[in-house]
Amino acid sequence: MDRDQILTTLRERILAFATSRVSRDHAEDLTQDVLAVLHDKYPTVNELTDLVPLAFQVLRYKMLDAHRKALRRGEYNQESIEELPLADINDDPVTQLDQKQRVDRLLAAIGQLGERCQALFKWKLEGKSFPEIQKLMNQTSINTIYTWDLRCRTQLLAFMGGSWE
Known about the structure:
This protein is 72% helix and 0% strand. It is an all-alpha fold. It has 2 domains: 3-73; 93-159, Arc Repressor Mutant, subunit A. Helix 1 (3-21) runs parallel beside helix 3 and helix 2 crosses helix 3. The protein is elongated.
């Protein structure tokens, strides 16, 4: 009996054993992994009496590894998503009022800033990077933009009463 016939017969045995322990899909994957290890790392082992114990030892290691990985990922104690309560998309009225008041204070403070600071904040909120803002403001040094940004944020904080809250 040549090695390919032995591996074909051995594949059926490995698959049957793995299927008795895990799901069919997972057993197929484990069987393929075992055969790949036998092919790559043990090409010189050709006897059925040597291949069977070797294959099942590799299979046991693969199954233990899969078990440890599932434990590490928390797959055994996952909750069903259908059983979890839906999140309330609306905040409670107190949180909504607090957020509205903060936004109003922020807008009032930005209105007190100079044109340069307002433009700088506008471009930052649009997602522009400091080098892009440097070009938009026609400045030769990016450090100037960094300095202006610091000064504008300091002014804004002062207009907000010294606190972002």
